[in-house]
Design brief:
single chain, flat
């Protein structure tokens, strides 16, 4: 991600959010905003800022599961996995196990 230059990556992701801020009601732009939140979550996770990563992932989940979004959106599963991974990295093993069990229930054949 920008060859380790996290501050440039963060600036660009935040700029992308600002570009989409004025566009409302367009499902494609809303989902794009969700992808930016997901990427910010990944960035903050790489930086070890788990609280901020969790916030970004949760915003992305909210968008991915919003009204008008594809009900079978695989990004929801991926984002839930990212949230479980944060719990593992925080060493909250019980929370991580609960999250992973929920993921298995969501997609038992995966």
């Amino acid at each position: 991600m920008y060859m380790g230059n996290y501050s440039i990556a963060e600036q660009n992701f935040k700029r992308a959010l600002l570009c989409n801020e004025d566009i409302v009601g367009d499902q494609a732009h809303t989902q794009l905003k969700g992808l930016v939140y997901q990427n910010l979550g990944c960035l903050y996770e790489l930086m070890g800022n788990f609280d901020e990563a969790e916030t970004m992932y949760e915003k992305a989940v909210k968008i991915a599961s919003s009204k008008g979004a594809d009900v079978a959106n695989p990004r929801i599963y991926d984002l839930d996995y990212c949230l479980a991974n944060i719990e593992i990295r925080r060493k909250n093993v019980l929370n991580a196990i609960e999250s992973i069990v929920s993921l298995i229930k969501l997609s038992p054949n995966s």
